[in-house]
Batch of 4 targets.
Target 1
Amino acid sequence: MNVSVPLVAILGAAVWVAWRYMGLRAGHIAVCLLFGFFLAATSAAPEIRRLVAVFVEAFSQR
């Protein structure tokens, strides 16, 4: 599965829209980034990647 760059771009666009139009503050963005960074270093990271892969495959088959 090779969707990391497009998925990051989509999530980045979603964060930008939330920041621009929904009142997300820079502090909230920083907390989300730090949470993702530290979550990637845990033992839950492989399971999260598998879950994302399942969702991507399910939506790409439609």
Target 2
Amino acid sequence: MEEEPAHSVLDVERVVRCEEDLEEPGNVRVVEVAEVLELSGTARPGRELSSGP
């Protein structure tokens, strides 16, 4: 979806457990706890970790 215009929850067709490179348009990939910890340093990230407004 990175290459296409902005999307919303209305575009979600299914939630899947798959590798990042196997995602298809309309899929939302489940982010496992280990990946959340690696990316954010906590199992429960909050708004304070956001770099946006």
Target 3
Amino acid sequence: MEPMELCVLVGLILIFLLMPWLMVVCVKDLFRNKGSSGSGGGGIIGGMAAMDRIVNPAGQHVQEAKEVEREEEGIGGE
């Protein structure tokens, strides 16, 4: 058996032994920690709000753009 084949074989054995153990540990940790006591979506909603602040730091520019569009439509429609 060549060294490369041996390394691949050892890697596959480790993956097949470690992955089920890792999944069991993660599932145990998931059920051990209750998380928030609310409806369960508070963390997700807070994360989405934080992401919105990062992606869209100035929410006013959207309203300003809409106002400019309305003014332009008014000018073009006359």
Target 4
Amino acid sequence: MRTTVLALVAVSTLAACGGGGASNYTTRGAFAPTQLYATGPLQRACMSQGRKAASSSRCGCVQAVADRELSSAEQRRGVKVFKDPHKLQQWRQSDRAGDNAFWSVWKSFGQTAAKVCT
């Protein structure tokens, strides 16, 4: 009996705390997606191009995905894509192995960023 009372007191106390860092916890019991954000070369390039869909949160999310999926050298090369999107098409059609490898990595990165940053 005493154990049951202590357990109820503990549960009541925890429930009264409000869950602490549950700001991304919805009322249905599922976790809401957390928006990623980072600063870096792709975030700056994204913001500087003046595209209609560019926003601080979207460009920061793209950078956060890049930080997970691209090396720093790939990120520097990717800045060129923001400045001149035709470069990506040239690399995709190139016969050079390095260009083809970058195209594959960039394509995967783009698909992930599109899913995560919408």
